[in-house]
Amino acid sequence: MEKQVNNFMTKHQLLSAGSTVVVGISGGPDSLALLHFLWSLKEQKSLTIIAAHVDHMFRGKESKQDMEYVQNYCKQLNIKCEAKQIDVTAYQKERKLSSQVAARECRYTFFNHVMKKHKANLLALGHHGDDQIETMLMRMVRGSTMNGYAGMQPKRPYADGFIIRPFLAVTKEEINRYCKLHGLTPRIDPSNEKDSYTRNRFRHYVLPFLKQENAAVHEKFQQFSENLHEDQAYLEELTTGVMNKVMRKKLQNEILIDRDCFLRIRKPLQRRGIQLILNYLYKEIPPTLSSAHIDMLVGFCESEKPSGTLDFPNGLRIIRSYNDCLFTFNEGNIEPYEFIVPIPGVVELPNGHQLICEIHNKVEDIKGNDVFLLDEAHDLQSLKVRTRKNGDKMRVKGMKGHKKVKDIFIDEKIPLQFRDHWPVVEDSQGTILWLPGLKKSAYELHTHKSRYVILYYK
């Protein structure tokens, strides 16, 4: 087993001399064997080993005993041990998560803390070849992304370093033999035998069948995983190139893409393009996000309907408006507003624009929808700028009768995400005078007088 793991670590460049390694340890066979294995390399590779243990407090006294066991074992080997009890059940209820997701979040937050405290560049986890088979099969059954289907990577970026999984090259049976050979007496979590957990059902019923067909099936799955990750990396490189032409705006919390450009690229790159966007915005993909979301989004872009919205996990909203498709966490951050317009003066609008009001006494040839002229004799005591309201109508300049503001937005193809925040200028009687940058009303001054008010939208 030692030879297999060493060859695997060399192949994937998992462990360099002088590394500081945090080892996630539960006290079970896999993590205990990993800690012992890396400890055995300590002198040879000049490693600094830190054990990190989380008591999730699911099993009361029993799980506390697991923690004490890990602490005592580390003391015997003179390994620094960081251990913490976390009330995962309270965390789970507060955030409305499943117990497994809550435990994972708490555990990895603690691992991150330990890595920073000890300036560690590696987090070593005890996942093995059988775990890889179970993970890949579970994701195929429930649906996932292409990276998800490829399973766990031997090495991937995490925090300020990397997560490494040296035992992906070996099976549970080999780990158990290693524990017996070295006199290790791991703790056994009884929940691993319960068929109420999906992973356990795969472990108890599917895995034995596969091993009966081929005892080295873990090697086949690992090779398949590595091939998929390599293919995915190449396709993502191609995708990055084409998506740079598709994206029209890229901010920290939102991305705007051109729908027509997106639909012109090949389907495999479309799916990966969406995945790149989600990776960028989420930073860490929520466990509830699956391939179904990707397929739904592709269909959303293909739809003949000119507008619509999709709500994704953790508050991400996708807004489709004509040829614009916006991915945003910012939607709804601008609340409805209403401001008095000072004459003269400046109003700073929440959408980043300004409404500037000046008094002029000279004739100027001013055109365009970004300016609006108003007779000084008009009642200007309560000139306001506000967001739209239901039923808003205005007498559009050059037209007979009134037109709904909603219809103006539709005619002008204003994206959905901008409509609720678009400024509306009205007088003290509630008459809409101007939609800055868009449409003027019939109340604009027709002829220049000696003094008049001019509004600028910048």
From TrEMBL:
Is Mitochondrion one of the keywords UniProt gives this record? no
User: Localized where?
Assistant: Cytoplasm
Give the Gene Ontology MF terms in alphabetical order.
ATP binding; tRNA(Ile)-lysidine synthase activity
- Does the UniProt entry include the keyword Cytoplasm? yes
A GO cellular component annotated for this chain's UniProt record is: cytoplasm
EC class of the enzyme, as a word: ligase
Q: Which reaction does it catalyse?
A: cytidine(34) in tRNA(Ile2) + L-lysine + ATP = lysidine(34) in tRNA(Ile2) + AMP + diphosphate + H(+)
> What are the GO BP annotations of this UniProt entry?
tRNA modification
**The entry's keywords:** ATP-binding, Cytoplasm, Ligase, Nucleotide-binding, tRNA processing
> Anything noted about its domains?
The N-terminal region contains the highly conserved SGGXDS motif, predicted to be a P-loop motif involved in ATP binding.
Function of the protein: Ligates lysine onto the cytidine present at position 34 of the AUA codon-specific tRNA(Ile) that contains the anticodon CAU, in an ATP-dependent manner. Cytidine is converted to lysidine, thus changing the amino acid specificity of the tRNA from methionine to isoleucine.
* UniProt xrefs under NCBIfam families: lysidine_TilS_C, lysidine_TilS_N
**This protein is called what?**
tRNA(Ile)-lysidine synthase
Gene source species: Priestia aryabhattai
Cite the source lineage: Bacteria, Bacillati, Bacillota, Bacilli, Bacillales
The gene name reads tilS
